[in-house]
Description:
Elements: H1 8-14, H2 32-35, H3 38-49, E1 83-85, E2 91-94, E3 105-108, E4 111-113, E5 117-127, E6 139-145, E7 159-163, E8 167-170, E9 173-176, E10 186-192, E11 198-205, E12 208-217, H4 218-221, E13 227-233, E14 235-240, E15 256-257, E16 266-268, H5 292-302, H6 313-319
Parallel strand pairs: 5-15
Antiparallel strand pairs: 1-2, 2-14, 3-13, 4-16, 5-10, 5-14, 6-7, 6-13, 7-8, 8-9, 10-11, 11-12
Amino acid sequence: FFFPSPSADEDDKSKPAGSDGERRGVKRQRDEKDEHGRAYYEFREEAYNSRSKSPPPPEEEPREGEDDETVVILDTYTSDLHFKASKDRYGGQPLFFEKFPSLWSGARSTHGVTKGKICFEAKVTQYLPVKEGSPEVPLFRVGWSVDFSHSQLGEDEFSYGYDGRGLKVENGQFEEFGPTFGENDVIGCFANFEGEELVELSFSKNGEEVGTAFQISKESLADRALLPHVLCKNCVVELNFGQKEEPFFPVPEDYVFIHAVPVEDRVRTPLPPKTTEECEVLLMVGLPGSGKTQWAQKHTQENREKRYNILGTETVLHQMR
């Protein structure tokens, strides 16, 4: 059915009179520009353009004598991306300790060993401040691992650590071992390859022997080199590979620091790319749960020589446990 609309005169009569001839109780639609002056929009534009952006990552400081590949230092090529090495590469700390106090950060040395009686020292030089009320406490773990093992020292095969809580850890298994240690303590790490069938790893605290923590079958190790390895959370660590004139504490006479091992008897981890053009970045695109992480992990294992760093939440969450 069609009903004719009321005439204009009837329509006008039905509208209650208002100050502007509008219906009472209905707010007049005003243009946004009428409500704010020019200064408002200039301020908003300036605020938008000057909005604080995320700070760029700090550039790695060039190390003096960087071209000398015979020097035993921490390897920033194989370390965690969030491990901040000191300029001389004889120490370091977590990069994001303020915002992520539960995040562990690890690094290995550039050289490893396969024979002899070798040692190095690690000192917890400082505890980093955490936010008030944070349940996280500074922790340090030190020991030995093989190339291609995870940065989480002691949490996979052929990775052996002494934890500041007095625990030893191998392949993810934690056991009571020795005294706890922390700020200003020095841990001596010793690797004895001279046994016929076993490699013995032992530790000391502030010059006092703690004892043998691990015995590794040479057959299972299969000539893999053991590399000094540190893992820290909310603390700063300093290492002595033998570059110091005097050690922090005396070591047994039959042990030598890894830096004093002849170059030909050391095993160097692969050198990093010389230029960024030699590097490779793969960007995964897909819906959640479509298999991006699984594909990336499989591709990484199939191309280990490329040493991909997978940037994803799964790795970070694992390092925060």
